[in-house]
Design goal:
Chain lengths: 241, 248
């Protein structure tokens, strides 16, 4: 029984250095996740700022009218469209559209995956961030404005740093979700962790070892990151007291 | 009627909500002269806070004009941010920035808005902190301070911008009773130094002692105004008499 296990283990991981392709796949998974998160963060913050600016100042913008109002209205509409489309379609479909249509000539699937997952994550980060901005007490905003900061300065120096702190744990959870979501990157020929495991399965004709190994690696990463988030949450709470 | 001593002139100021169904301010005319310490009193919901917050356009008036140092700040073409730098404001709930130290709370606006160097801004901040006895708390965060300390920091934060007028919106209303005195003390000293101040407060003792003029507002209108002794010892309007009988 043990011999059987060992020979399977050897076949799936040690022969032809197959463990190394898993390791490389893990690297790719982390690379896509990390870069997509940064892209998503940038997109998310911009969209959240536009949307909350529009929501907060709708009445005064309307009264002043003119170009500013039209511009904000158009920007807000674009953001809403983006959120609706991204959140209303499966990420795999978005990924394939990015790879086979938008970047049909792309050679590096990894970068396309970063783009697709970043764009996707941005929609979710935007909503997380918007809730953070809305949760900052309006008095903070007034204090900033009363000192003479204009609207963008107040946002940058006073509101967004506080919003960021509030949503940090939720953002980390988004990172954890993203790690798992990138497992469909194999659809566009990216050798991520999942794809690497699947390729081993194809070569050795044994599914159990490689797939369970892949699952365990994801699980381990998620458990570690989740416990880090919990610690972060506790520390943030302590700082507030 | 515009003399060189007037700092703020308010003409026909109105603030309506719900398409005019609620009239928070219903036509206010006022003039604030340099060096005046004006205290605004009135029942809750009378519009006194709305009036104060209109002066730096935190509330956008529905109608009327506000001239600050000769400039019509209600004109949409006016860059209100520049004028707000000259109008310090202190809030009921302090509104210190919780993610910054006391020192940073005080230096961020001068540094970003007036291009003052960090060391100069810090020097000024320490100088002001000393006047309120809090120089040792410079590196603490607001959450580590008591209510009275927070409000004293909020006052010196506004002073860091070297404003020409200070607006106080019920600065002691959110404080525990034993902390009211320390904040009023700072305000008294400020008045003594000649700062122009407009204060909305329920502290009648402060009004009587420090104010050069008391304005009584009710239902969005100025009902009566005068020196503290005129208002408190010899009120004329029945609504003012009624109000004073309840609060004194």
């Amino acid at each position: 029984m043990f011999d059987e296990f060992y020979s399977q283990f050897k076949l799936n991981f040690i022969d032809e250095n197959r463990w190394f392709s898993l390791l490389k796949g893990l690297g790719t998974t982390l690379e896509i996740t990390f870069l997509a998160l940064i892209l998503g963060l940038v997109i998310g913050i911009v969209i959240a700022t536009v949307r909350s600016t529009y929501d907060k100042n709708q009445s005064s913008l309307k009264k002043k009218g003119g170009l500013g109002y039209v511009l904000m209205k158009v920007l807000n509409a674009i953001c809403n469209l983006y959120l609706t489309v991204i959140r209303g379609t499966p990420v795999v479909v978005q990924l394939m559209i990015a790879y086979f249509i938008i970047f049909a000539n792309a050679k590096d699937g990894t970068l396309v995956a970063v783009f697709a997952f970043g764009l996707n994550s941005g929609a979710y980060v935007a909503e997380i961030f918007r809730s953070g901005i809305m949760s900052v007490d309006n008095g903070q905003f007034e204090a900033g404005r009363s000192l003479g900061f204009n609207y963008p300065q107040t946002m940058i120096h006073i509101i967004i740093p506080q919003a960021f702190k509030t949503v940090l744990p939720t953002l980390c959870n988004e990172f954890i979700v993203l790690i798992k979501e990138t497992s469909v990157a194999g659809y566009v020929g990216v050798m991520d962790l999942t794809k690497a495991g699947d390729i081993i399965r194809g070569r050795t004709f044994s599914a159990f070892m490689p797939l369970i190994a892949v699952a365990l690696i994801y699980l381990l990463m998620v458990i570690i990151l989740s416990s880090l988030v919990k610690r972060l949450e506790r520390r943030l709470r302590k700082n507030e007291r | 009627m515009k003399d060189n001593n007037s700092l703020i002139i308010v003409e026909g100021l109105k603030k309506h909500y719900l398409n005019g169904k609620v009239k928070a301010l219903d036509g206010i005319d006022a003039e604030i002269k340099k060096g005046e310490v004006v205290v605004i009193i009135g029942p809750s919901g009378s519009g006194k806070s709305t009036f104060l917050r209109s002066l730096n356009l935190l509330e956008e008036p529905t109608d009327g004009k506000i001239l600050f140092e000769g400039v019509d700040i209600t004109d949409p073409k006016t860059n209100i941010n520049l004028h707000r730098q000259k109008m310090g404001m202190v809030f009921q709930h302090f509104n210190l920035f919780p993610h910054m130290t006391v020192l940073k709370n005080m230096t961020i606006a001068p540094q970003k808005l007036r291009n003052i160097s960090e060391s100069q801004a810090k020097e000024k901040a320490f100088e002001l902190l000393k006047t309120v006895g809090l120089e040792e708390r410079a590196n603490d965060y607001p959450s580590q301070l008591s209510g009275g300390q927070k409000q004293r920091v909020a006052i010196v934060r506004a002073l860091c911008m070297e404003p020409d007028v200070m607006l106080f919106d019920e600065p002691t209303s959110a404080l525990d009773p034993e902390m009211v005195g320390e904040v009023l003390e700072v305000m008294k000293n400020l008045a003594k130094e000649g700062m122009t101040m407009i204060t909305v407060t329920h502290e009648m003792g402060f009004a009587r002692e420090v104010a050069s003029r008391v304005i009584f507002i009710d239902e969005g209108k100025i009902i009566e105004q005068g020196t503290p002794s005129e208002i408190f010892d010899n009120p004329k309007h029945p609504r003012l008499k009624d109000f004073l009988s309840k609060v004194l």
